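ok so I'm stuck.
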Amino acid sequence: MRSIIAPQMALSPGAKLGPYEIVELLGAGGMGEVYRARDISLHREIAIKILPPSFSQDSDRLCRFAHEAQAAAALNHPNILSIFQIGQEGCAPYIVSELLEGQSLRELLHNGPFTVRKTLEYGAQVACGLTAAHSQGVVHRDLKPENIFVTKDGRVKILDFGLAKLVQSEEKQSFEEVTLTAKTDAGVVLGTASYMSPEQVRGDVVDHRSDIFSLGAVLYEMLAGQKAFAGKSGAESMAGILKEDPAPFPVARKIPPAIERIVFHCIEKEPSARFQSAQDLQFDLDTVSNSSFGTSPLAGAESRRPRKISWTLGASGLALALIGTFLVGMRYGKTRVPEWHRLTFSKGVIQSARFAPDGRTVVYSAAWRGSPLELFVTRLESPESRPIDLHGTALLGVSVRGELAVIQSFATVDSGVQMGTLARVPLDGGSPREILHEVEFADWSDDGSNLAVVREESGSSVLEFPVGTPLARTSGFFAFPRFSRDGTHIAFFEYFDRSQDGGSVEIVDRQGHRKTLSENWSDLTGLAWSPDEREVWFTGTRVSGASGLIGVTLDGKEREILKAPTDLTILDATRDGRVLLTTQLWHAEIYGAGPGDKQEHELSWFDFSLPDDLSPDGKLLLFHEAGEAGGSNGASYLRDMDGGVPTKLTEGYCTGLSPDGDWAVCDMQAQPRPFLLVPTKAGLSQRLPDDHLFHSVARWLPDGKHLVFTGTEAGHGQKAYIQNIDGQTAKAITPEGVAHVEASPDGKYVSAMMTSGKIVVYPVDGGEGRDVPGIEAGEIAIGWTEDNRSIYVGRRELPSPVFRVEVATGKRTFWRKLAPVELSGANFIAPVLITPDGKAYVYGINRRLADLYVVEGLR
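replied:
not stuck anymore, here's the structure
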């Protein structure tokens, strides 16, 4: 084994540095060399930064090197490089950090200026990371494109807190205090000339507003394609920073005035005239990003806002004049206000809609005022809808022959997704003829003679045409298949998994040749072929905000067609340009009752509140916000069950509350990543060792020392695992095929909801599982009773009857029925949380309120 014994020795592949083995040199800069290395003990790849030989004897540089590690290691945030360890081998100090795959902002700038949307997205992420650092009293002091890294999945990371300095506001620093002496320079001001704030140049007191100035200079460069302060020398650049303003943005770039104001507000000469916090800057960037500003073609990273899949996601009562003010992105830059014709006027959710062959009759399925789904027919010239005598039926498609494809006897398998029996029925009346069981989506072929279907088979989602002939298969989830009018292709969505609606737009021909047209979208809610069939039109978003209408050509060119101040869903389009759209309001709400409450009450906070865990005594609720109010990363909160203002714990999603209520276990945003333990009171967050698993919901065992969770190893199915929070490696306690687990109050068993639909009990210490008898189809496991003998089970439909089922005998006892008083648009219930003594409970619902429109004039 080779070892580093002196800084003069080069690091070659195979060299050992403590428990790390060098793989290759990644790059070198003024503050050190960066290597890819392998953590031998944990079997993972990491990055090591080590001082180069020429600097290892420089005490000032050694001091800065150590300071970088201490400053960055104190920070724990998705937008800041994670530091794992600082060490020294012989005379060589080093820092161990996460290994990033991607490019620096400087490298990306070599390709030219960024689109407005990319600038807003990346800028907001940098501001988010700075907010976290500033809240800990850490100022970066050298923010520049070289120190901003964009990973392959679109995550922005701030690097090199080597100049960071704990804020000291008590006294002014002298010029000498903000310089370092190097061998070739008498004095070098800390920072990089083109991005330094005026107070840095002058040697004045530097606080968090200096970083805001630097970020403003970076944003300017991203938009303009040139530096804000670019002199021929460092001295000229610093003189410009003190006395001059950057040149106006090039006219050809067409930078919206609102964005220009944000950038120039960042680079005001006086700190008091800038944004006073990075959080305020982030808010403005997100606000502008969520408005109609953008460029075409669209660009942006994958959304980090998980949202449940929905066929239609409600909205009601938008004035046409309001919608018209948010229309953007017509083809060739021409703007034309489309004509909107409202078709529905009731309160509820619209599941699907299609034009009949005449192009003026519309068939749709909806659940109005809390009633079950049923079919309706309306015409463009009439405000009335006529029900078709098919109750409990959802529409899937209408053929060119005027025949309906419907789904009946269905069960809800996820938010807005039903699985049931596919049937066909004439539009002008008749009895449905059953075709196939356990179908989720279907669409008619171009001649109306056959159907393409999506259904589950052996744990995979399969697109078939004709029935029984697979064209595509995925471990994720297919949805919304739509035949082209010439019958050559089927367009569809592929989602990453059933728990999220992030995914891609795909097409496949009849021979099974498949192509991805556009990817990295979230909130994918509807799809249709464009009137001229040169594009696939779909509704979705890449940033936190409302879903818009997007077009993509068959060679992958994207454009934004329509934007509104609420979610849009496209349902159908005709050859002559009429488009069926819904405007939608989508909310997630929480209802429940605490110990001693005589009636349940609403516990929602913002627009998309989802319950995660209840304390054992039923007094504390852990929940998260997954909508616009939660931001691009989401946010987790803790609140008392008796009301009051919730406390924000962290960005991201926490899923389990410790038995004493002092800690929450949270997922890192990018997977696979280790769990993060976040204190609910004073204290510092703790990162658990990386187990290289893709995590799902985690729960604490009653001893407060172990977690039980579901996780997936790359290339394998999901299992249940147990992990000691003191750092031991996670251990699988079930076979593959587990969807969710809940621990018994004594910590000896878990109830596992299997992907097969069974509920199986497994010992926590390992061993064979045993099926719980008495479970009915469609029921899900909720939690355990306090005697450890029974589990609570319920259904996803509303209202949802909940039963206690004895694990040994299957004996069922009714507990209560869960449903809010107002059922309009509420068609999905999950999750449900019940304390073991049954004295407190909460449940979440999705409420979707929609209006159906025919829109003409879209191009």
